[in-house]
Amino acid sequence: MIHLDRDAMTPMYVQLANVLRDRIRRGEIPVGRRLPSQAELEEETGGTVSRRTIKSALEVLADEGLVQGVQGKGVFVIALPAPAEE
């Protein structure tokens, strides 16, 4: 289950991108693997976010060069995120 804080100063799409980035970093979603679909992510958040929010989170990860969409197949991890700064 993905828990996002509606009252946080950080936009929900950024929170979701952070959760997905952490899953990629930890190897829960390895390079070459498909991310959960928008419908699966909507279910994982308990239906608390819109498809547009999910799409925005995926766009953030794509802009970072971590994921790439493949028409008709889904969004796949293509790279690991840079190590988190301590």
TrEMBL record:
Span of domain HTH gntR-type: 10-80
Domain of life according to the entry: Bacteria
Organism for this UniProt entry: Streptomyces ureilyticus
Keyword line: DNA-binding, Transcription, Transcription regulation
Database matches in PANTHER family: MANNOSYL-D-GLYCERATE TRANSPORT/METABOLISM SYSTEM REPRESSOR MNGR-RELATED, MANNOSYL-D-GLYCERATE TRANSPORT_METABOLISM SYSTEM REPRESSOR MNGR-RELATED
InterPro entries linked to this entry: Bact_HTH_transcr_reg, Tscrpt_reg_HTH_GntR, WH-like_DNA-bd_sf, WH_DNA-bd_sf
Pfam families the record matches: GntR
Protein's UniProt keywords contain Iron-sulfur: no
Listed SMART domains: HTH_GNTR
Protein name: GntR family transcriptional regulator
